[in-house]
Write a structure and sequence with these properties.
Layout lengths: L9 H10 L2 H12 L3 E2 H6 L5 H13 L6 E2 L7 E3 L12 H4 L3
Antiparallel strand pairs: 1-3, 2-3
Length: 99
């Protein structure tokens, strides 16, 4: 008989919640291919408003999957580099989402 006895902490819950959304996984995939994109660049490739994309990015940042760096006017140039330690493996899609 198997028993799950590990406690899942709030940080892991944030990761699971962030990765449960297909739009957030799409954003991560796009950042994996081209790292350090601006908010405008991400919005151009999606049929979503800047506000909607920002909400998804906030969830990814809360889960510590991405970090945002503000450069110049925050409304127009927000770069979103991936945290390289989170995405070391270039293997399958699942390996990119290790926390």
């Amino acid at each position: 008989m198997l028993a799950y006895c590990e406690v899942v902490d709030d940080r892991m819950n944030a990761v699971f919640k962030a990765l449960a959304d297909p739009t957030r996984r799409l954003l991560l995939d796009r950042l994996f291919v081209v790292n350090g994109q601006s908010l405008g660049e991400l919005c151009d490739s999606l049929d979503m408003s800047r506000q909607a994309v920002t909400q998804h990015l906030d969830a990814l940042e809360d889960a510590n999957l991405i970090s945002t760096v503000r450069q110049g006017d925050p409304s127009s140039t927000i770069s979103i580099p991936l945290r390289s330690k989170k995405f070391e493996s270039g293997g399958s899609t699942n390996s990119r989402y290790r926390a």
